[in-house]
Amino acid sequence: MNRFGIWLVTVFLVLFCAAPIVAAKTIKIGGLFDITGDTGLVGTPYAEGVRDYVRYLNEEQGGINGTKIELLDVDYVYKISQAMAAYKKFKYEKVVAILGWGTGDTEAMSPLITKDKIPYFSASYSEHLTDPKVTPYNFMVGTTYADQARVALKFIKDTWTDKSRNPRVAFIYNNTGFGRSPFFTVKFQGQGFSGAEDYAKEIGVDLVAKPIIGLRALDATPQLLNMKKADPDFAICQETSVMATILKDAKKLNLRTKFFALNWAMSGKIRDLAGEAAEGCYWTNPFCIWADDAAGVKQAKMISEKYHPGKVQVVNYFQGFTAMKVMAEAISRVKGEINGPAIKVALEGMTDFDTGGLTVPISFSTKSHKGSMGLRIYQIQKGEFVPVKKVLLSR
User: May I ask the CATH class of domain 145-285?
Assistant: First the structure.
C-alpha cells in the first residue's frame, strides 16, 4: 500500500473510532423507581412521567442544550438494600443527578449523596429532607407531608362549627419513615423536625387515635374498629393504594368519620378502587390532575398521547413529569461543565419557576430546598375531584 493509501486508512480509522465517542456523550441521570414493591401502584405512573419527559426532550428538543439525556433507571422494589446497590451503580456510571423515591432510602443514602455531591430529587416529601444544612443535595418539588397535614388540620379547624368542643382527629399511617413523617417529630442527623401532632395542639384540634395500617393490608377492619371507639370527626391518612381498602372497610363499618388523604393516598386509580366509599373524601394535592386546564397539563397530555395513545394518566404521572421538568430546567441553566455542584447552584438560584400550572411556581434557595409552597384541597363529589380550596404557604 502506498503512502496515500496508508493515510486514507489512518484517517478512516481515526474518524471511525472518534464517532462513537462523540455520539456517546450524554447527560446521565439516575432514576430510582418502585414498580413492583409496596408502593408500585403509585410508583409506576411516577416513573412513566419521568421517562416520557426524558423521551420528549431527547426526541423533540434534542436533549438539553443539544445534549441527549441518558436515564439509568432501576426498580428497587421499595427496599433500602436495593436502593443502596442502585446508588453504587449510578455513581459508577457517573450520573450528574438522581430522581429518587422513598423516605427510608433517601435517609439512608443522604450521607453518600452529600459526600458525592449528587443533586437528588426525592419523591419523598418528608420535611426533614429539605434543610440544606442537613441534606445539602436533596431537593423537593412536592409540598412536604408535614405541611400537607398542617393544611388539613387548619382546614378542619377553620370549618368546624361546633363551639362546644374541639374537632377530634385520627392520624392513620404505616409504620415506616414515610408513614410517620407528616405527623410526629422526626429526629434526623442530630436535629428534630416537628410534625402535625404539635400543630394540632397549637390550634386546638384533639388527636384521639393513631391507627397503624400496613401499605399492603388487605383488611383494615381491626384498626378501624379500634379507631371507632375514639369516634374521631376526621382521619388524616398517610398511605398509598391501601387507602382504597381503608375507605371501603370504613363504609362497611358505617363510620361517621370523614377522611382526609395526603397526596400519595389518593388518585383517580385509588378513587376507582374505592368506588362509592370514596365519596366525600378530602385530598391535599400539590399537583394538577388530568381534568385541570393548565398549560403544563396540556403539554403533559400531548406527550402522554404521543407515547400512550388514549391513556388517561393519574396524578402520579404529573408528579414524575414535573420532577423531571424542574431538573431539566436547572441543568439547562448550568454554564460550563454539567456536574453536581453546578446543578446545585442552578437549583438554589431558581425563583418562581413556572411549571405551567402543574404546581405553584417552584423556588429553591441556599436556606430552603422546599420547592413547592402550595396545594389544593379537593373533595370527591359524585365521583369527581372537586377543588374546594387553594392554599399558599409562607416560607
Answer: alpha beta
